[in-house]
Amino acid sequence: FFIFSEMHGISFRVQIIVKELLDTDVVLKLLFHLPVNYPSTLPDISVNSDQLTRAQCMNVKDKLLEQAKKHLSEPMVHDLILWIQQHLKDVIKQSATVCNEKTTLSKGTSTEDGIWMLLLHLDHMRAKAKYVKTVEKWAADLRLTGRLMFMGKIILILLQGDRSSIKEYLILQKTSKVDVDSSRKKCKEKMMSVLCETEVQSQHKRFQTFKVKEYSTLEELQKEFETAGLTTLFSEFVPPLLK
Predict the structure, then answer these.
(1) Could you list the residue ranges that cross the membrane (predicted)?
(2) Fold of 115-241
(3) Which of 10, 111, 177, 238 is the right S-S partner for 186, CB 3.0 to 4.6 Å?
(4) Are the C-beta atoms of residues 67 and 78 closer than 8 Å to each other?
(5) Contact 212, 93 (CB under 8 A)
């Protein structure tokens, strides 16, 4: 880790790796700022990770500060690092639960952003079974409904839900190691395109669940869109993918 001094205290940058969490190694980047009167005063803590969402990083920070209060007036940085290495998995699980509870509480009472819809195009899936399982888990965790659709070489993900959950999904899709490269090493999704991100209109029907479906013809796929009141969405974005 790196140490640098400041006029108002000392800052530590610490990078730790927690093995095989979320089907991948999680690299946690922690910044501790120790004020001049540390340890009588709590340190400032900043948490970042490419594998975790912003909400999960905030939850890790909150838990670290909770632990720090238990060590007030005694050196604590080393203890906090050991603690988060041992408890990161539980903290992330709690983060998902809290997120779901907040979604439930705000459902119907908050029209902050309305219901949004996202249409993604994926170029390929080398590790298809694992990839599909990951997408299903994310959709369930974020309370998103819709379809993961396969038709020939076309792969589409159509999602509906709270705008904040849609944005959270996009972060996960872009930053997590969801597939494998040609050498079968885990890799991030680099060939995804956002075809459409828009608010759900009155003529659009809401999907009640998230399903994975395969279609043998373009007509079958078109019918799925038409049933959901998304004929325009289909005609604008899907046929060009066949060219």
Answers:
(1) none
(2) Alpha-Beta Plaits (3.30.70)
(3) 177
(4) no
(5) no
